[in-house]
Write a structure and sequence with these properties.
This protein has 703 residues and is α+β, with helices and mostly antiparallel strands. The protein is 49% helix and 16% strand. Helix 10 (152-172) packs antiparallel against helix 11 (176-190). The longest helix has 35 residues, at 192-226. The chain starts with a helix and ends with a strand.
């Protein structure tokens, strides 16, 4: 168990005496504040903040973070106010404690929503002071170490949350030691049997390979010493969870995973890293394509090292990492390594600068997310990067997760570039926006002032920034579409009474909005568009009952559909209406107006609820391509489908889907789904198909 004397001994090695005494004073303050409180393990509660401070001291964190660690539960668990902490230890510490304090327990519909809301608050606290997350990670680490006293269900819930959120955050901040402990502790709690078996297998394998590992290590040391390099060579072992993940994702046995020998070489300078690399490559043959230079291009969390894979004795692969002592410290403790915190950012190292940039990105996502669950999903995407490095035409390097596309690249350059993106060039050739990028690609984005994000981009956008910006734009676009459609429908309702929305008495409209709890007219129009309110009844309520019987010639005037209304007008999949068809609409809750062919069987059932039916017609300037399905009866002959597909493609029409169904031994039904402009276009396609030899019949599928 950590004691204050042991902690002071650690602190005296790197803090000034007055700073150490401030941490000690915070300990006695916390001890008094938590007096009488006991942890589930039976220990005095103050042992928890003391242990959290000990974890941060091992990372050589500054004294303000350590004071905040001592006091992080004081505000919530005792009656002490934030202002009292500010008076005793300064406003900076008070803000840290307030940010780290266990978040207020709120009632949410689900556990996921609660976690998401808490994380959202934590992101806001991190934006004020990045040290908040470091104290929070140390707090969670000590809680993970002491989960044994909790019930199995609660322990598993905390372990799952740690693996889902806190472990990736530690990785994103470069804190490898914390991440590995999170993963191993979480793994042993969630899958105790698997953890025990893998641990036993590692111990067994370690004994068998000890001599070979030592031989390789001594060979490397002897070669490097001979060249005059003073180095430290460490045999490196994978931890439990990483072995389990590799076995699961790559479907490999334990023996295959462990059949790789890994070493880390620690040197004194960057120049020596490259010299040592040359010596190692002369000792063992390097495996082509397995060299990575993370010194020239660091990972997004600040990690730097040279990675190479060699073919050793007896054909055994050897992984080698070469780095300086500073890089080793950065790899283990990340943002916490050599902490130097200044409010004006002067002196902050590149890792801390990257971390702050990441937090700023979190804040942007948080502002654009619709709710906390959507925000945390975006963050999870952002927390699991396997980076690639691509270039702008001017040579700037951008880091993107593996699988990223030109859409992700466009949003990484700037949000406005992403929103107005229309095409891209990859290595000077035109390429689809959906093409996955690879390291070394040079990407150029082509934009247009009138362009807008396409909903289909969500199918292949990978980064959280791209996805959140697309969602944000589409939501606003959806609202604009809804307001426009709602106004058209409500005006149709008012036409029954010989007036329009603009002509309605403003006092009557305001009274209606207040009575039905609408803040603005736009909110009412959105509800009308979504089908939550029926236009005719809403118009009648606004104008009041005495006009209910007065109708005019505008009553049956159909609403014109252009096909570009957006998300609140959809086309029924049961009957596939196309321009030229006689159509009718059904006002559906949440989907807005659903357009059907007037002969559709489903529409016949809906006519019982005639208040929700809307008279529609196609506008003269209708645009777009519309899905339609044809059923073709053909003789069973080889190559018939290819002949029909060629005929259709020659008319510039793409076939979306083809399926076949045998009628009997002589004839087959071929179902084709394609996009057409209108009934005239469809008629030409059907005529072209009927002209094909051995085609007996072509009909349009109606339902």
């Amino acid at each position: 168990m950590q004691t204050i004397d042991a902690l002071n001994h650690t602190l005296n090695s790197y803090l000034k005496p007055d700073q150490t005494s401030q941490v000690t004073r915070a300990y006695y303050f916390a001890e008094q504040a938590h007096y009488g409180q006991i942890r589930r393990s039976g220990e005095p509660y103050v042992t928890h903040p003391l242990a959290v401070a000990g974890i941060l001291a091992d990372m050589h964190m500054d004294h303000q973070s350590l004071v905040a660690a001592m006091l992080h539960d004081v505000i919530e668990d005792t009656g002490i106010e934030k202002s009292a902490i500010g008076e005793q230890f300064g406003d900076t510490v008070a803000e840290l404690v307030d940010g780290v304090s266990k978040l207020t327990q709120m009632e949410f519909e689900s556990l996921e929503e609660k976690q998401a809301e808490n994380f959202q608050k934590m992101a806001l606290a991190m934006a004020r002071d990045i040290r908040v997350i470091l104290v929070k990670l140390a707090d969670r680490l000590h809680n993970m170490r002491t989960l044994g006293v909790l019930s199995t269900d609660k322990a598993k819930r905390i372990a799952r949350e740690t693996l889902d959120i806190y472990s990736p955050i530690a990785m994103r901040l470069g804190m490898n030691n914390v991440r590995m402990e999170f993963e191993d502790l979480g793994f042993s709690i969630l899958y105790p049997m698997r953890a025990r078996r893998i641990d036993a297998a590692i111990r067994n394998a370690r004994g068998h390979r000890k001599e070979l590992v030592e031989n390789v290590r001594s060979q490397i040391v002897a070669t490097l010493n001979q060249e005059g390099h003073d180095v430290r060579v460490i045999g490196r072992e994978k931890h439990l969870y990483s072995i389990y993940k590799k076995m699961k994702s790559k479907r490999k046995s334990f023996a295959e995973i462990m059949d790789i020998y890994a070493f880390r070489i620690i040197v004194d300078s960057v120049d020596t890293c490259y010299r040592v690399l040359g010596c190692i490559h002369s000792l063992y043959k390097p495996v082509p394509g397995e060299f990575k230079d993370y010194i020239a291009i660091p990972k997004s969390n600040g990690y730097q090292s040279l990675h190479t894979v060699l073919m050793g004795m007896h054909g055994v692969p050897i992984e080698v990492q070469i780095r300086t002592r500073e890089m080793e410290d950065m790899a283990n403790n990340g943002i916490a390594a050599h902490w130097l915190y200044k409010s004006d950012d002067q002196g902050a190292n590149s890792s801390q600068a990257r971390a702050r940039q990441w937090v700023q990105g979190l804040l942007e996502m948080q502002q654009k997310a619709g709710d906390s669950l959507e925000f945390i999903e975006s963050v999870k995407i952002d927390l699991f990067p396997d980076e690639i490095y691509v270039f702008t035409p001017k040579g700037r390097i951008l880091e993107l997760p593996r699988g990223a596309t030109a859409v992700d690249f466009a949003y990484a350059v700037h949000t406005d570039v992403g929103n107005s993106c229309v095409a891209c060039r990859i290595n000077r050739r035109l390429a689809p926006l959906s093409e996955a990028l690879e390291s070394g690609h040079t990407v150029e984005i082509l934009t247009s002032s009138g362009a807008r994000p396409n909903p289909s981009w969500l199918d292949y956008a990978v980064t959280a920034k791209a996805r959140s910006n697309i969602h944000h734009f589409l939501k606003h676009q959806t609202r604009d579409d809804s307001v426009a459609l709602g106004q058209t429908l409500l005006n149709k309702g008012f036409a029954d009474f010989g007036t329009t929305l603009d002509q309605v008495d403003q006092d009557q409209l305001t009274e209606f909005l207040q009575e039905h709890h609408y803040t603005t007219v736009e909110d009412l129009l959105v509800d009308v568009a979504r089908g939550s309110r029926l236009p005719a009844i809403t118009a009648q309520q606004i104008l009041s009952e005495h006009v209910a019987g007065t109708a005019t010639a505008g009553r049956d005037e159909p609403v014109a559909i252009r096909g570009t209304e957006g998300y609140m007008v959809s086309f029924a999949r049961c009957c596939h209406p196309i321009p030229g068809d006689a159509i009718e609409g059904y006002l559906s809750s949440e989907k807005g107006v659903v357009v059907h062919r007037d002969q559709c069987n489903n529409l016949a059932d809906m006519r019982e609820n005639s208040d929700r039916l809307v008279a529609l017609r196609w506008d003269d300037d209708v645009q777009g391509d519309y899905p339609v399905e044809l059923r073709v009866e053909v003789e069973n002959r080889r190559g018939m489908i290819a002949v029909m597909a060629t005929r259709i493609n020659s008319m510039g029409v793409n076939i979306e889907k083809i399926s076949t169904e045998n009628k009997d031994y002589q004839f087959t039904f071929v179902n084709m789904e394609m996009h057409v402009e209108n009934r005239v276009h469809l008629a030409r396609i059907m005529k072209r198909l009927r002209d094909v030899n051995h085609v007996r019949k072509v009909v349009r599928v109606k339902n």
